[in-house]
UniProtKB/TrEMBL annotation, chain A:
Protein name per its UniProtKB record: FAD-dependent oxidoreductase
Entry keywords, A to Z: Oxidoreductase
Keyword Oxidoreductase belongs to the record: yes
One Gene Ontology term of the molecular function aspect: oxidoreductase activity
Domain FAD/NAD(P)-binding: 6-333
Ranges where the record places region Disordered: 469-488
Alphabetical list of Pfam families matching this protein: Pyr_redox_2
Native organism: Streptomyces radicis
UniProtKB/TrEMBL annotation, chain B:
Listed GO CC annotations: cytoplasm
Protein known as: FAD-binding oxidoreductase
Any GO MF annotation of the entry: oxidoreductase activity
Keyword Transport: no
FAD dependent oxidoreductase domain: residues covered: 7-360
Organism: Streptomyces radicis
Keywords assigned by UniProt, alphabetized: Oxidoreductase
InterPro entries: FAD-dep_OxRdtase, FAD/NAD-bd_sf
From TrEMBL, chain C:
InterPro entries referenced in this protein's UniProt entry, alphabetically: 2Fe-2S-bd_N, 2Fe-2S_ferredoxin-like_sf
Region feature Disordered, mapped onto this chain: 82-101
Name assigned to this protein: (2Fe-2S)-binding protein
Matches recorded under Pfam families: Fer2_4 (PF13510)
Gene Ontology MF terms: iron-sulfur cluster binding; oxidoreductase activity
Entry keyword set: Oxidoreductase
Length: 488, 386, 101
């Protein structure tokens, strides 16, 4: 802890974090790059050791960022701390931020760094699949679409033999084609929206021509593997005893209401659910930075055009500012790194900044069109029954939360959480938070607000930490920040 | 609001307001409960739910605790399951011979005051708590210490009051008091005026601000406390376990961070770890020094917890008065205004007795305990007793 | 992808599993056809892999006696012993060394 503070700590080494660390490092800042994964790449470029990028999108971008990072880490400019999770960030007055770290899992690394100090912090924390509970979704064999993908990309393991990929959004397509290419039978891709819709929005798709080409590629792959693509449809129930054996697929209208008489049953042993993504915002919230409801209805960090959060010294890039894919995240990360450098007194690369801002604006327009075409169906809560498990960790049912609302006056998510316990378990509401907010709002006949999401997104401990680690915190936690004697 | 309004407006939908509302309703009064936030949105939803007789010296607070225990068990006994009432018992442990001797002296005086307290020898401790650290010097077991889930207690007491005809309005902020001369005749809110026969200030750590609306001084201040919540565990801690030093800390007037271990399991398998006390106003930022000491204290008592993960940390602001006694009763400086608050970290437990006393006094019955030690105006008479 | 690399063996509830270098514990279990490896506290319902990226904690497993590890994150290793139910916490030794002060 006596090491002099870094100029910038970047949290997350996915597309945004890698780009931020590289941009800041190449601009002359001393950077710490903290990441839970064993290798840079994040979820998007998750790969096995020594992988060559087969099956990955835009691997050249990753390869280039990775080699630039290697040049920086070979010197002293960037310190990469893999296999570490940030469980808290604290700061006394104007002193540098202190990031408190814990190993990504027990025994993850022999070189545990318990804390890193930095004068500024770039949060590039990504996100994870957004989930809408349905009856039976807790059965083994039901997975998040991103989890199916991670298993494939990271371990070369196919999660099932006969799969259905369901939910909404373009991410369902690579999951389905990935499974099919790896030898699984994909019974159907079940898409709640009618995705032709977004191709019709000239501002969106045309703004990012690469995306349209990408989409055409997936469509061809689905055709090649004879995967049916069912639109305006949803998996509304999962069947099975000890594990998944089948799903019910129903036709839905634009609001998610079931169209009667169009039910079918598919025999499957794997269900991959994805309803867009939930950004990881615990550190943004813990630092007191502003948040708002993004285009896809998730809580996102509020940033200015240069990626500054509302708290000085905090920058946010990637999915945490709004889900929009890797290309957007890379541009945002790069801009965040550059802004941090400029704010630290480095010369402003005006042209490059303008170019990045324009690229981000285009990507945002595309993302907005995509979110508008793939909304969470307004009436999805009608698919639920009293007995449907809402919170997987604490096995809290829909009925229990509705009783808390109706009988006990729990109109807001925090009160419902404290009375009925959704979000109180291991995952601290990361999986059920959005659904809980939606269920309560639907019950009260109103829309989900940013305030609802904030109440469920507050996690002062951003990751579990052992009591032994807490007990070993230094005391007093930090010396006052005197000017460095060794800055020469 | 039709006619002349309710008999009683209760400001604050926390445990004190909820208990007061229920007992007043039961006594036949027409009650309206107001809160600017949701129910139990302040202190009540941010504690552990202690019903303790063990941590109190003989005196008015212990009398209130013993009354409250009786009310929880008897008057409210039929509803005990609704709020997970659990008579788990409390085990106080002493780490040194000196604190063991002090504890034995305390239990002697507590027994004389009617507390069920069993002295426990060092060698008997593992029979109570197999996971306790070796080397402790002795302890005391209090079968009467219990726990409730405080959010459920608040919500169900308010529901019972509603079922009895009370009105509960959340999201309504009291912005002023209606006056007729000195007399308080109702409340002014951001949703309109509500005339009432009496107004009860049950605003927890914000009770001082409500008193100010009436132009009277009520020195209730916030004291911050953190609680750590672990991962769900197989049964590890059977009782509420705390250190003998806890009793001294509770009564301390020191502003600096103080911690003493309080460790217990909940129905959901998690272990709750307290307690810390700091006078830092309403500062809600996470304090790592507090968490460090909570964790270190807990591991010292239960070494096996060292490898157990904390999933969550939360804080609450406990309302306290300079003499560490609550305020309960009418305010002679502003007739029609009543106060019930300042119970510090014991408010959940003491709420039952407080609610009953309040209802008795509001209906003109003789309270089960004399209210003189809890008089709201006592701080105006020079320096309070220590 | 990595199929040519040498495999190794670990066990789940005593039953041997084959894994490839770089695979997670969850991947090794999945390849062996094991979809659930713990029961929930409340309902005793079977659970296994869900989010796959360390967020949901559904895939908790005991690894070499260490309870509540995320199977999706922990790399499989030669000789690793996996079990579903968590072991009880260790009892403190009867010796007089520890002190609670």
């Amino acid at each position: 802890m006596n090491e002099r503070p870094f100029d910038l700590a970047v949290v997350g080494a996915g597309p945004a974090g890698l780009a931020a660390a590289v941009a800041a490092g190449e601009s002359g800042l001393r950077v710490a790059l903290v990441d839970a994964g064993p290798r840079p790449g994040g979820q998007f470029w998750r790969h096995a050791e020594g992988a060559d990028g087969a099956g990955h999108h835009d691997w050249e971008t990753f390869a280039s960022l990775r080699s630039r990072l290697r040049r920086l880490t070979a010197g002293t400019r960037v310190r990469h701390l893999p296999l570490h999770q940030v469980w808290a960030v604290d700061r006394a007055g104007d002193a540098p931020f202190t990031l408190r770290l814990t190993p990504a899992f027990d025994g993850a690394t022999d070189e545990v760094t318990p804390a890193v100090r930095a004068r500024a912090i770039a949060l590039c924390t990504g996100g994870y699949d957004r989930q809408l509970p349905v009856p039976g979704w807790t059965l083994p064999g039901v997975m998040a679409a991103g989890g199916v993908q991670a298993l494939l990309k990271g371990s070369g393991t196919v999660a099932g033999r006969r799969a259905v990929v369901a939910g909404t959004g373009p991410f369902l397509l690579p999951v389905a084609t990935g499974l099919a290419a790896a030898g699984a039978e994909v019974a159907a891709v079940v898409e709640a929206a009618r995705p032709a819709d977004w191709l019709r929005r000239p501002l969106g798709a045309a703004a990012v021509p690469g995306k349209a080409v990408e989409g055409a590629g997936y469509a061809a792959a689905l055709l090649r593997h004879r995967v049916p693509y069912l639109t305006r449809s949803a998996v509304t129930r999962v069947h099975g005893g000890d594990e998944v054996t089948a799903v019910t697929v129903e036709r839905v209208d634009g609001s998610g209401r079931v169209v009667p008489g169009r039910t079918r049953r598919l025999a499957v042993d794997l269900v991959a659910f994805g309803w867009g993504f939930t950004p990881s915002l615990e550190l943004v919230v813990a630092l007191g930075a502003g948040t708002e409801r993004g285009a896809d209805g998730s809580l996102v960090a509020t940033v200015d055009r240069a990626r500054r959060a509302t708290v000085p010294g905090v920058y946010v890039a990637g999915e945490a500012t709004g889900v929009g894919g890797a290309a957007k995240a890379v541009a945002e990360g790069e801009l965040a790194g550059l802004t941090a450098a400029v704010d630290a007194g480095r010369p402003a690369p005006t042209k490059r900044g303008r170019r990045l801002a324009a690229r981000i604006a285009r990507a945002e327009r595309f993302a907005e069109a995509m979110h508008a075409a793939h909304p969470v169906p307004e009436r999805w809560t009608e698919w639920l029954t009293e007995a449907t498990v809402l919170c997987r960790c604490e096995e809290v049912t829909v009925g229990a939360v509705e009783r808390a609302r109706e009988d006990l006056g729990a109109g807001d998510p925090r009160t419902a959480k404290l009375l009925a316990r959704p979000g109180m378990g291991w995952c601290q509401g990361r999986v059920c938070g959005f659904a809980t907010a939606a269920l309560l709002a639907a019950g009260a006949g109103r829309a989900v607000t940013a305030e609802d999401l904030r109440a469920l997104g507050k996690r002062p401990l951003a990751a579990p930490v052992t009591l032994g680690e807490l007990a070993a915190l230094p005391e007093p936690p930090d010396p006052p920040d005197f000017p460095d004697p060794d800055t020469a | 609001m039709s006619g002349r309004g309710p008999d009683v407006v209760v400001i604050g939908a926390g445990i004190i307001g909820a208990a007061g509302a229920w007992f007043a309703t039961r006594a036949g009064l027409r009650v309206t409960v107001l809160d600017r936030g949701p129910l139990a949105g302040g202190t009540s939803g941010r504690g552990e739910g202690n019903l303790l007789v063990s941590d109190k010296e003989p005196g008015p607070e212990l009398d209130l605790a013993l009354l409250s225990r009786r009310v929880w068990r008897e008057d409210l006994g039929e509803h005990a399951g609704l709020w997970e009432f659990d008579e788990k018992g409390g085990l106080v442990v002493a780490a040194t011979d000196a604190s063991a001797a002090g504890l034995a002296e305390l239990t002697r005086r507590q027994r004389a005051a009617g507390v069920d307290a069993v002295d426990v020898g060092a060698d008997e401790l593992p029979a109570y708590e197999p996971q306790l650290a070796p080397g402790l010097r002795g302890g005391a077991f209090y079968p009467g210490d219990a726990q409730v889930q405080p959010m459920l207690a608040v919500a169900h007491l308010l529901r019972l009051a509603r079922d009895g005809g009370a009105e509960v309005r959340t999201g309504v902020e009291v912005t002023g008091l209606l006056r007729d001369g000195d007399r308080v005749t109702g409340v002014r809110t951001d949703r309109g005026d509500i005339p009432a026969g009496n107004v009860v200030n049950a605003a927890g750590p914000w009770a001082g601000s409500v008193a100010e609306l009436a132009g009277v001084r009520l020195p209730v201040l916030p004291r911050r406390g953190f609680v750590l919540v672990t991962e769900p565990l197989p049964p590890t801690v059977r009782h509420k376990v705390y250190a003998a030093e806890y009793v001294g800390d509770v009564a301390s007037a020191d502003a600096a961070l103080q911690t003493s271990p309080v460790v217990e399991s909940t129905e959901s398998g998690t272990v709750l770890i307290g307690s810390s006390r700091e006078r830092v106003g309403f500062d809600g930022s996470l304090s790592l020094p507090a968490l460090k000491r909570l964790a270190a204290n807990a591991v010292a008592l239960f070494p096996a917890l060292a490898g157990v993960r904390a999933l969550r940390a939360y804080h609450g602001f406990r309302p306290y008065c300079p003499d560490h006694l609550p305020v309960i009763g009418p305010d002679p400086r502003a007739p029609g205004l009543w106060h019930a608050g300042g119970h510090e970290g014991a408010g959940i437990g003491l709420a039952a007795g407080t609610g009953l006393l309040l209802a008795q006094a509001l209906t003109g019955a003789t309270p089960a305990l004399g209210l003189a030690p809890f008089a709201p105006e006592r701080f105006d008479e020079g320096d309070p007793a220590p | 992808m990595t199929a040519e690399l040498p495999t190794f063996t670990l066990t789940f509830e005593g039953r041997p599993l084959t894994a490839r270098p770089g695979q997670s514990v969850a991947a090794a279990l999945t390849d062996a056809g094991i979809r659930a490896w713990r029961a929930t506290r409340g309902e005793g319902a079977p659970r296994g892999l869900f989010c796959g990226i360390g967020v949901c904690y559904d895939c908790l497993i005991t690894v070499d006696g260490r309870p509540a590890q995320r199977a999706c994150l922990v790399p499989a290793a030669e000789g690793m012993a996996l079990t579903g139910a968590p072991p009880p916490l260790p009892r403190p030794s009867g010796a007089d060394e520890g002190n609670a002060s």
